[in-house]
């Protein structure tokens, strides 16, 4: 999977960092885009998020399907995350370790040290049981921690 296949998704995320473009995007995906959304929409059209149609601009029908397929291919074991958080009980036994590793690598950056509360908060965005995923990531050697469990970081191991 090349980084270029995620270009539209990355473009959208970058555009949504702008408060002005966030408002335009919200209006664009509404039932009837407003004039201001159409005026602000050129960046969305260039990135493939939106398309010109019927004298206006609308969300591209294929963008979300293509973006989700690219993300699923890129995230591998995280494809179980289909708009809801991952539950360890919903994973097959052979999917558990790869899913835990993928989630841990997604929420902790290389060289970053994260407090347990911050790690739990990050994990909670993706999983139903942050404590289980945190402990399992340590048990499988994906994450390391201080003796008191106050700080966590990625182990120096290849994926």
Give keywords.
159 residues, mainly alpha, Arc Repressor Mutant, subunit A, 2 domains, two-stranded antiparallel ribbon, 8 helices, elongated
Describe this structure in words.
InterPro entries: DUF2087. Residues 106-154 form the DUF2087 domain. This is DUF2087 domain-containing protein. It holds the Pfam family DUF2087. There is one protein chain. By secondary structure, the protein is mainly α. The protein folds into two domains: 3-66, no CATH class; 81-154, Arc Repressor Mutant, subunit A (Orthogonal Bundle). The protein is 49% helix and 11% strand. The protein contains eight helices and five strands. The protein has helices at 7-16, 19-28, 35-39, 42-47, 63-75, 93-107, 116-124, 130-139; strands at 50-53, 56-59, 114-115, 143-145, 151-154. It has a three-stranded antiparallel sheet with strand order 3-5-4. Strand 4 and strand 5 form a beta hairpin. Helix 6 (93-107) crosses helix 8 (130-139) and helix 7 packs across helix 8. The longest helix is centred in the middle third of the chain and has 15 residues, at 93-107. The two termini are 16 Å apart. The model has no long low-confidence stretch (mean pLDDT 79).
């Amino acid at each position: 999977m090349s980084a270029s296949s995620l270009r539209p998704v990355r473009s959208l995320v970058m555009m949504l960092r702008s408060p002005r473009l966030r408002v335009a995007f919200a209006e664009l995906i509404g039932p009837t885009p407003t004039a201001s959304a159409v005026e602000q929409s050129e960046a969305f059209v260039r990135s493939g998020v939106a398309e010109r149609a019927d004298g206006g601009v609308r969300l591209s029908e294929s963008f979300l399907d293509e973006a989700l397929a690219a993300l699923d291919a890129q995230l591998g074991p995280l494809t179980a995350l289909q708009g809801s958080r991952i539950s360890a009980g919903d994973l097959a036994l052979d999917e558990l370790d790869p899913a835990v590793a993928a989630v841990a690598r997604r929420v902790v950056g290389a060289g970053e040290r994260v407090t347990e509360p911050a790690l739990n908060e990050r994990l909670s965005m993706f999983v139903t049981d942050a404590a289980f995923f945190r402990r399992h990531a340590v048990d499988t050697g994906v994450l390391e921690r201080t003796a008191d469990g106050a700080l966590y970081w990625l182990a120096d191991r290849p994926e």
